[in-house]
Amino acid sequence: MAGAAIGVANCLALPSKFTNLSLHASSSSSCSVPFSSLSFSSNLSQTVFSKGRLSISIIPGPTHHSIVCDAAPKKKADSAAKRARQAEKRRIYNKARKSEIRTRMKKVLEELEVLKKKPNAQAEEVLPIEKLIAEAYSVIDKAVKVGTLHRNTGARRKSRLARRKKAVEIHHGWYTPAPLVTA
Question: At CA 95, angle to CA 140 and CA 154, rounded to 5?
Fold first, then answer.
């Protein structure tokens, strides 16, 4: 293994542009792991290794050891970099939109909670809360439309607001649910 590591260390010191790369087990080294010669031709090195880095790793196996050489580019391709920029921009937009949804829902739920705890509340006090609910619905629908939220998630959040409002109305007696008719 020591001989293979010496060969790898010597290989990593090579410049990125080369005409021929060979790895050989030296007979003088005290390497207990025999491996066969490994070489690359100049046409492969010019197309693959000239624009990137060379990574070599030794993989021990039950019967033999393998040396794996990987060539990877130093930087992302232009399309990958553009995708990364787009994803970051979308992440920021989506984060702001989701934050706005949470804020509007929180305001509605807090107002409903205050109204529910109020002992002498009037039915007209629901009207400003209904405006807040309409604004929250609008923000949720826009988020679903642009793809920030899944449509089922948007529907669930709107339903949550409507259920809380109905619970407050039932609590104060402003709304009585219709009795279930069994046939």
Answer: 20
What gap in Å lies between CA 129 and CA 133, rounded to an integer? 6
Q: Quick check: 52 and 16 in contact, CB under 8 A?
A: yes
Burial 105-126 (b: 16+ CB within 10 A, else e): beebbebbeebeeeeebeeeeb
> How many CA within 13 A on the CB side of residue 104?
23
Strand, coil or helix: 69: strand
Condensed to tens digits (0 to 9), the pLDDT of residues 124-170 reads 999 999 999 999 999 999 999 999 999 999 999 999 999 999 999 99
Question: Using CA atoms, how far apart are residues 122 and 129, in angstroms rounded to an integer?
Answer: 13
Place of tokens 């109305």: 169
Q: How are beta strands 65-73 and 52-60 bridged, if at all?
A: antiparallel
